[in-house]
Design a protein that fits this description.
It is built from 10 helices and 23 strands. With 375 residues, it is α/β, with parallel strands linked by helices. It has 2 domains: 192 residues, FAD/NAD(P)-binding domain; 173 residues, FAD/NAD(P)-binding domain. The protein has a 5-stranded parallel sheet, covered by helices on one side. It has a 5-stranded parallel sheet with strand order 10-21-11-12-17, covered by helices on one side. A 4-stranded mixed sheet has the order 1-7-6-5. A hairpin with a 4-residue loop joins strand 19 and strand 20. Helix 1 runs parallel beside helix 10.
Length: 375
């Protein structure tokens, strides 16, 4: 059993680093435990073409700007480099290769069970990431399918699938994003299996970025925000019904609130759809040998099934026994809020927002730091 600083942060992604820097600013010592060998482990695992959907100047963490050289829409590699500089600039205490397995109340504080043993601390901030555990549906017949099935999180570069016939399952944010890259990479055919039509918006309209406008819109009623988003989508793309994508039943804000699914940002998806370079097909009914059977009994024979079917938070092994999670696996008390059922336990980075999660990390970090410093 070893003692840790008064606050331990689990996870060295953007939320965890923001929390550590905010605590240092108010004079509270902390240590960050990271299971990977470096900061930004989850970012390093994403495909190389990834760019932030939030503008550079609305994606900063407290105390260090992302350099202008990274451009308006920051690439995956530039953001990883930024997080590395951020940790070094703030001289954060990060212990790599430490897999935190379970948290338990102990003596008015917390016991941390990890791959390096048990550790005691006063408070714990969980920052393991919103999109942590890939969700791969257990389609009927999946165990007997001879065609490879891969979650999109396992794809390192779109060019790895060049020349293949790809069935992409899911048209959420990651599905719409990767679809454009796959067509650009030269896949032989691309079918996109859609169960629920997505809310799609462009990054820019007439050369103007839309992201900054989403921040002040939070003050408006949800129905007005949804109306504005639908109108913007219609102006940008027109009616996509004849291409297989009717208008979604819910606007993006209502859908996020009721299902946790955010909107999709277009990176060439709509242009490729209109040009016939990808095809919208029905949802999967079952898998049979080398064939994928869709609802309506249409059969496809792709070379690979690529699932853009979302992620889970994966918090259950860590804190599931504490009765602090809701049915969706999210912190019951909310992100950056006190946890009445477990005093001294905090969560950061678990609030999805249309205007971007990264913008919320500094806000949540400062809120937690002030609360901890005041106790």
């Amino acid at each position: 059993m070893s003692a840790m600083p008064p606050v331990v942060i689990v996870g060295a992604g953007s939320a965890g680093l923001a929390a550590a820097a905010a605590l240092r600013q108010v004079g509270v010592e902390s240590a960050v435990l990271e299971r990977g060998p470096s900061v930004a482990t989850s970012w390093r695992g994403r495909h190389e073409e990834l760019r932030l959907n939030t503008m550079r100047w609305l994606s900063d963490l407290p105390g260090l700007r992302i350099p202008r050289s990274a451009g308006r829409w920051v690439s995956r590699d530039d953001y990883i480099s930024y997080l590395e500089r951020y940790a070094a600039c703030h001289r954060l205490d990060i212990q790599f290769g430490v897999h935190v397995q379970r948290l338990d109340p102990a003596g008015g504080g917390w016991q941390i069970r990890s791959s390096t043993g048990c550790h005691d601390t006063s408070r714990v901030i969980v920052a393991t990431g919103y999109d942590r555990v890939p969700l791969l549906p257990d389609w009927p017949g999946r165990s007997r399918l001879s065609t490879p099935v891969m979650h999109v999180s396992g794809l390192r570069r779109a060019t790895d699938l060049a020349g293949l016939r790809v069935l992409l399952v899911g048209a959420g944010n990651s599905g719409v994003e990767i679809a454009g890259h796959l067509v650009n990479a030269g896949v032989a055919a691309l079918w996109v299996s859609v169960r629920t039509p997505p809310n799609i918006l462009p990054r820019e309209l007439a050369g103007l970025p839309l992201h900054p406008a989403s921040v002040p819109l939070r003050a408006l009623p949800e129905r007005l925000r949804d109306y504005g988003a639908r109108l913007t989508s219609r102006l940008a793309f027109g009616d996509l019904t004849r291409y297989g994508l009717p208008a979604p039943a819910q606007g993006p804000y209502a859908r996020l609130r009721t299902t946790g699914v955010t909107l999709a940002i277009d990176e060439g998806f709509v242009a490729h759809l209109k040009a016939g370079r990808l095809e919208i097909v029905a949802e999967i009914d079952r898998l049979a040998g080398r064939e994928v059977v869709l609802r309506g009994d249409r059969r496809l024979s792709p070379d690979i099934v690529l699932a853009a079917t979302g992620f889970r938070r994966g918090l259950e092994p860590l804190v599931g026994h504490l009765d602090v999670l809701d049915k969706a696996g999210l912190p019951r008390a909310g992100s950056a809020a006190r946890t009445p059922a477990a005093p001294g336990l905090w969560f950061i980075g678990y609030r999805a927002a249309i205007e971007g999660n990264l913008r919320l990390h500094p806000i949540e970090a400062r809120r937690i730091a002030r609360a901890i410093a005041g106790t």
